[in-house]
Amino acid sequence: MKPQRIPLQVWILTLSAFAIGTAEFVVAGLLTTLAHSLNISDGQAGNVITAYAMAIVIGGPVLTLWLARFEKRNVLAGLMVMFIAANLVSALATSYSVLLVSRVLAGLVQGPFYGIGAVVATRLVAESLAGRAVGQMFAGLTLANVLGVPFGSWIGNIFGWNVTFYVVAALGAVALVAIMLTIERQPIEQARSIRQQLKAFRHGPLLASLAITVLCWTGFMTLYGYIAPLAEQVAGYSVQALTVLLFVVGIGLVVGNHIGGITADRNLRHAQLLWPLLMVASLVIVGLVSSHYWLFMAATFLFGIASFGNVPPLQMSVLKHGSAAPELAGTANISAFNLANALGGIIGGLTVDSTLGAVGIPWVATLIPVAGIAFVLFNRRNSSLKVQAVR
């Protein structure tokens, strides 16, 4: 009988997600240090982040297609070995090209690990706890933003950026050992061909769920990616105070991720609509109080809760509708999140450089999630009409 609480094995997946999430985001805090050390421009250093993201979006699903046939515990362990190796290469890199290649290799790990790990997490618990198990695993990603990124940036800027990657590799090694010691081998399922796995994407609700992820999540990165100019230019935060603000938002991300898992277990259908609505409402509140120092901090904390409350319902919806190929579907959703991150970055950048300026970011950030809510309602109405037609 599966446990009625979150077991240790899911916490091990949380640790793994923390290590991987730190590797993804910590480069943002090391850009100028990297650029100076490797004698490249800040723009070239930024390409390191882009390369990592594109490896997730494009390479993740392709790699998962091949890995889905193997036993899942060993796949997770193998991916963590690849993660450790990639970060060691990053730490030893003395040229821009080697660093770029190493970040691509590290990025290839993230999509399959999160996608396959989410499937394993749901199978380690009773069905009634599946949403909380997924939320618990993705809590590692939120903790990476709260703890891993600031600490990793501090280490890199004091002791050298190479040291940060050694620390990340060490985190990966701890996670690898824990995976091998605590997670049992998963039952071998009948191998599906690549063609059979891809057939899952003929299922309309799965494609709709992936589209909802992109639409609803774009609003998060539009604001979060450009919260610094909004805080400094409009709310009056200093660079030092910005660190405190980001920590507060990060706490909100952790809280929202936890509550989102609970709501997904109670009623996935309602949760999938509730959290985008709350995120849009929080963005409006941020826009209304953006010129008030303390109210802005409180509003962005609420924004953090509302935003990451979306993560478990969005991931659970994709796993539900992609049950014919859950590993590939889960990985495709990670790609959808990162596609939304890229769109949010573009939209936020265009906004802050336009006549609207930083003050317009919260308002523009609401547009795509509102379209996502409309799409959810349209998709549900369409599904209801089809059911009625069948009857």
Tell me briefly what this model is.
Keywords: Cell membrane, Membrane, Transmembrane, Transmembrane helix. With 391 residues, the chain is an all-alpha fold. The protein has helices at 8-25, 31-38, 42-67, 72-92, 96-123, 130-159, 161-182, 194-198, 204-224, 227-235, 239-266, 268-289, 293-308, 311-321, 326-352, 361-365, 367-390.
- Could you describe the largest sheet, including whether it forms a barrel? none
Strand/helix succession: HHHHHHHHHHHHHHHHH
- What gross morphology would you assign? globular
CA distance, first residue to last residue: 38 Å
Which structural class best describes the helix and strand composition? mainly alpha
CATH homology superfamily of the largest domain = MFS general substrate transporter like domains
Cα-based radius of gyration, to the nearest Å: 20 Å
User: Count of helices?
Assistant: 17
Uncertain spans = none
The CATH first-level class of the largest domain comes to Mainly Alpha
What's the pLDDT, averaged over the residues? 82
The total domain count is: 2
Q: What is the helix content?
A: over 70%
How much of the sequence is in beta strands?
under 5%
CATH architecture of the largest domain: Up-down Bundle
Q: In total, how many beta strands?
A: 0
The CATH topology of the largest domain turns out to be Growth Hormone, Chain: A
